[in-house]
Amino acid sequence: MENCLVNIAKVTKVFYRDTIEINVLQGIDLSVGKGEFIALMGPSGSGKSTLLNLVAGIDKPTSGTIVIDGVDISGLGENQLARWRSRNVGFVFQLYNLLPVLTAFENVELPLLLTRLNRQQRREHVLTALEVVGLSDRADHYPRQLSGGQEQRVGIARAIVTDPTIIVADEPTGDLDARSADEIMQLLVDLNRQMSKTILMVTHDPRAAERAHVVRHLDKGVLT
Q1: Which end of the chain is less enclosed by CB atoms within 10 A, N or C?
Q2: Considering all CA atoms of the chain, what is the largest pairwise distance in Å, rounded to the nearest integer?
Q3: 126-133 long-range contacts, Cβ below 8 Å, gap at least 24?
Q4: Spatial distance between the Cα atoms of 32 and 150, rounded to a whole number of angstroms
């Protein structure tokens, strides 16, 4: 694929439970172009989140290669992988994963503490990210003072604050009511269209999936 950002080739993932071998992913091939928005669907236990974690560099494949923006991340050591992840991946979680003792501003700032930006530069980046998600006026609020939809917006601001190469979203609307879910999906669509962000999203929700450019289905570790 021309303009290919993510190239997954013959990827398998095996987990072991005692002496039992569980083949979660079986020979996955997937290409994602720069600026594409891809939704992965499939029943629980089909390997969707496992595949997402491999692309995000949170886990490593048992075999096969994952090349992202020219870097074969399947061959990186733990420290190299952590450095690569902090620069290239914005992760959006189903349950937001915000720290309750930090304000929205401080939660969004967290990934920047691993960079060489000074305090003023970090502040500018955080305020820009909060503005993008429409929460400039909530910077000093704690998670408990926000609605679920607002918490997920903070989660998305945290994901984009480092200007990542790819955004990976694991059931980003799974814990939200229909209206909030629709707003979050529109935000992801805007990030994709207006900021050319490449997005790989796992979802159970057909309405969320239809906002993506491409929908791929996983079943029993096989991509159809």
Answers
A1: C
A2: 54
A3: 126/157, 126/161, 128/161, 129/157, 129/158, 129/160, 129/161, 130/104, 130/105, 130/154, 130/157, 132/157, 132/160, 132/191, 132/195, 133/157, 133/160, 133/187
A4: 29
pLDDT greater than 60 at residue 20: yes
The burial class, CB within 10 Å (0-12 / 13-18 / 19+), for 18 is: exposed
Contacts for 211 with CB less than 8 Å, ≥ 6 apart: 37, 39, 185, 186, 188, 189
Extended beta strands in 82-204, E state: 89-92, 166-170, 198-202
Q: Which H helix or E strand runs over 126?
A: helix 119-132
**Among 91-95, 155-159, 168-172, whose mean pLDDT is lowest?**
91-95
Cβ atoms of 167 and 39 closer than 8 Å: no
DSSP state at residue 137: G
What CATH number corresponds to the domain at position 54?
A: 3.40.50.300
- For the residues 13-19, what does the mean pLDDT come to? 91
Residue 219 lies in domain: 4-223
Domain count within the chain: 1
Q: How far apart are CA 129 and CA 17, in angstroms?
A: 41
Full-model pTM = 0.91
